[in-house]
Amino acid sequence: MATLLPLLVFLSIIFNPATARLQSKEESFISAGISEKGLNFVKDLLIEKAVKTLTPLRLPDIEKNVKIPVVGGVHMAASNITLLSIDVSSSTAQPGESGIAIVASGATANLSMDWRYSYRTWLVPVEISDEGGAFVQVEGLEVGLTVSMDNQNGILELTVMECGCYVKDMVISLDGVASWFYQGFVNAFEDQIRSAVESAITKNIIKGALKLDSLLQTLPKEIHVDDDVALNATVINDPLFGNSSVELDINGLFVSYEKVSAPSYLHKYSQSSISCGEALKMLWISLDEAVFNSASMVYFQAGLMHWIVDKVPDQSLLNTASWKFIIPQLYRKYPNDDMLLNISLTSPPVIRITPQNIGSIIFSDMIVHVLDAGESIPVACISLVVSVSGVVEISGNNLTGRAELDDFTLNLKWSKVGNFHMYLIQGVMRVFLNTVFVPYVNMHLKQGFPLPIIHGFTLQNASIFTSSSNMVVCSDVAYTNFSGAVHSSF
Ligand SMILES: *[C@@H]1O[C@H](CO)[C@@H](O)[C@H](O)[C@H]1NC(C)=O
Ligand SMILES: *[C@@H]1O[C@H](CO)[C@@H](O)[C@H](O)[C@H]1NC(C)=O
Ligand SMILES: *[C@@H]1O[C@H](CO)[C@@H](O)[C@H](O)[C@H]1NC(C)=O
Ligand SMILES: *[C@@H]1O[C@H](CO)[C@@H](O)[C@H](O)[C@H]1NC(C)=O
Ligand SMILES: *[C@@H]1O[C@H](CO)[C@@H](O)[C@H](O)[C@H]1NC(C)=O
Ligand SMILES: *[C@@H]1O[C@H](CO)[C@@H](O)[C@H](O)[C@H]1NC(C)=O
Ligand SMILES: *[C@@H]1O[C@H](CO)[C@@H](O)[C@H](O)[C@H]1NC(C)=O
Ligand SMILES: *[C@@H]1O[C@H](CO)[C@@H](O)[C@H](O)[C@H]1NC(C)=O
């Protein structure tokens, strides 16, 4: 611990003095935070990757002419110096003003190398030489890395602010050599091996961090949802580094691929405090109600909220014969004709999040068509207002949902087959909504949309909390793989 302290002090002074967080005019509708537990998870993952890429590692050869008492000038060389293994026993990840410091301390490492020497003396006219192998045990290896992260045009940029490596102690073993050589070799080479190890580790960690930066650069500004819409993942503001957590804000609204017009009239309703309660999770993702309403708007604007129903569980209901007594004119005009329903939403469903649930009121027009002599004839239009409420769930990295029918009202807008009372079709309508309408809505909600999670990580054991106009997903994550292109590099 005593040797770790200077390194920590050194790392902490390079954090910028408290700078005010750059606030942009743009609003963020999705925020994500990584807790101390999450930071430790990522740190362990990075250290594991770093150790994998660092071993084995070939260090530069060293050659020297060394003056040995009695013997005289001796040419010595260490070659094929190879870092074989590193064992990190403890490490920390500490957020600061503008970045994160990762410190691995008390690590040990093993190296192997070949040694060689040669010299001439006036005693013997030929060159005397020998060679063999050696083993080096490094103890008290400390590595510190400080990276800062900031927002560069909506993308996170990672910069290495400081990287250092310190070898406290090393034991060089050369078996079966004369003690004059052993001592001479250690005296002449120890410091150089030490600094070779220190600089090789530093160099490679910086290289790894830069690869991590290129991974961040590949994160898309828009997350593809389907052929029509995407989620705007543009980073807003610089990441906020807390005492033990990091917070990141993204735009978070749905955008349509066709019409670039963002629904600018959406605003964050409340700045409700984000809380995962007692749950100690690696990360939280907070979604404002506006995220869901933007989805609703872009799908509506894309003209995707139309639906033709020509199949129902009780198919006889889609024949005028079934309506003989309720709507006599319909049957008289179009006896025994099949029917279909053309349902169109008349406005984007408004989604409301409350501490209890998520609900929506769906305004739609249902045009009843009769299929007569190969023609589709609209005969009546019923305005249908359906209120649903539901729960949200996590499936993979998708936020999905399930809705249930709460209530509905019917109104006859126009009719070519005379007036008929809505209360007469109320019962049939309830069955229809429960067996056709709600299952259809759920079929779409079931797939959900992907949450902004870095490729290779999957949510585990997530729980969802709702508050007024806001929802928080609290979850642990598991690592599966970095994205293909950069997988091998870090
Ligand atoms: C160099 O050292 C490594 C690790 O000990 C060993 O696998 C490799 O064979 C050595 N190379 C030569 C050329 O001796
Ligand atoms: C280094 O080698 C020693 C002896 O073979 C072994 O006990 C130790 O676990 C090794 N350390 C690492 C970091 O591999
Ligand atoms: C962060 O730590 C500082 C000093 O330890 C403390 O004064 C401050 O209240 C902490 N802030 C938060 C948000 O915990
Ligand atoms: C995505 O969000 C950014 C930041 O809020 C905004 O500048 C940009 O216009 C948005 N993109 C679209 C397509 O709406
Ligand atoms: C269904 O209704 C919508 C809106 O009234 C209309 O634009 C569309 O053409 C209709 N589709 C069919 C197949 O009648
Ligand atoms: C997640 O959502 C996307 C886009 O809607 C979809 O393509 C994908 O199949 C979904 N994945 C899961 C596990 O539901
Ligand atoms: C999931 O989280 C709950 C509470 O946070 C915990 O009790 C449970 O053991 C966790 N399950 C797994 C598989 O981690
Ligand atoms: C990780 O991704 C790479 C490239 O796509 C693939 O070759 C490799 O098998 C994957 N590894 C795992 C454990 O999924």
Please provide a brief summary of the model:
This is BPI/LBP family protein At1g04970 isoform X1. Residues 33-259 form the Lipid-binding serum glycoprotein N-terminal domain. The chain is built from 7 helices and 23 strands.
Molecular structure report:
Helix content is 24%, strand content 46%. The chain has helices at residues 4-13, 36-54, 179-217, 289-301, 328-333, 422-447, 484-487; strands spanning 30-34, 57-59, 62-68, 72-87, 90-95, 99-119, 128-152, 155-173, 222-224, 229-232, 235-241, 246-250, 254-256, 283-288, 306-309, 338-345, 350-353, 358-372, 375-395, 398-415, 449-450, 457-467, 470-479. The strands form four sheets. Strands 2, 3, 4, 5, 6, 7 and 8 form a seven-stranded antiparallel sheet that branches. Strand 6 (99-119) and strand 7 (128-152) form a beta hairpin. It has seven helices and 23 strands. It folds into two domains: 2-220, Bactericidal permeability-increasing protein, domain 1; 253-472, Bactericidal permeability-increasing protein, domain 2 (Super Roll). The radius of gyration is 35 Å and the shape is rod-shaped. The longest helix has 39 residues, at 179-217. The model is unreliable at 1-24 and 483-490 (pLDDT under 50). The protein is of the alpha+beta class and 490 residues long. Bound molecules: 2-acetamido-2-deoxy-beta-D-glucopyranose (NAG) (8 copies). This is BPI/LBP family protein At1g04970 isoform X1. Residues 33-259 form the Lipid-binding serum glycoprotein N-terminal domain.
